[in-house]
Specification:
The chain is mainly alpha-helical. About 60% of the residues lie in helices and about 5% in strands. Helix 1 packs antiparallel against helix 7 and helix 6 packs antiparallel against helix 7. The longest helix has about 35 residues.
């Protein structure tokens, strides 16, 4: 009788782990959409915290986003100012910058400049992640029955963002907020249409394997 206790305890742990795996495979979109939503919310919380006078947490958020974005003010959205976006020509006289790269990793949140407070990531990133979030929510709400687009479909979705972004590097042109947002949104939608159905297939296979290997024992 006593020898059965460790076995039953081990089975209980295995059953718990399997239940966690099964729940995760059935609700993975909740987890993934939640992560994207928190990432977007964090980027927008930086200017909101600045507006609330909570400079310390806001500066930390701006610093964290150094890892994922250039944070160029002329390519970012603003809150709490007279406009939601500004060109380099509008920003340069206020900051002393002579080239666009002078403002790399220098988000603007100084109220004395009169521009408002910069969102922690750029316009293109804003559009990409909002598109991923909205499309991901739609994918989840419609029962995760979408078929994935082919790899070349994702490549086509990447063409506009590549052309718009790379054509700025040699100084041939400067994009505008609406175009950055549009190309970013197209790419974000493409990511979900390509990746999420594949992830769903993988999760179903993992769930089926977990269900088959669930431990059973008789009292």
């Amino acid at each position: 009788m006593e020898s059965d206790q460790p076995v039953r305890r081990e089975d209980s742990v295995s059953r718990f782990v399997n239940n966690v795996v099964l729940w995760s495979t059935r609700h993975w979109t909740l987890f993934l959409n939640g992560i994207v939503a928190m990432y977007v919310a964090l980027a927008f919380s930086a200017p909101l915290l600045m507006m609330a006078g909570l400079d310390g947490p806001a500066r930390l958020i701006y610093l964290l986003f150094h890892a994922t974005c250039h944070q160029l003010p002329q390519r970012s959205f603003f809150l709490g100012g007279p406009a939601v976006a500004y060109s380099f020509d509008q920003i340069a006289p206020l900051t002393g910058a002579t080239t666009g790269l002078d403002l790399f990793w220098h988000p603007i949140y100084d109220a004395s400049l009169g521009l408002g407070y910069q969102v922690a990531f750029c316009q293109r990133d804003t559009a990409i992640y909002l598109a991923i979030l909205i499309t991901g929510l739609l994918y989840s709400a419609t029962g995760r029955r979408w078929r994935p687009i082919p790899w070349w479909g994702l490549a086509l979705c990447a063409v506009p963002i590549a052309l718009d972004g790379l054509s700025q590097l040699p100084g041939w042109r400067e994009s505008v907020p609406a175009l950055r947002a549009l190309t970013g949104a197209i790419f974000g939608v493409g990511v979900v249409l390509f990746a999420y159905p594949h992830v769903n297939t993988a999760m179903r296979e993992i769930g089926a394997s977990a269900a088959d290997s669930a431990p059973t024992w008789q009292a």
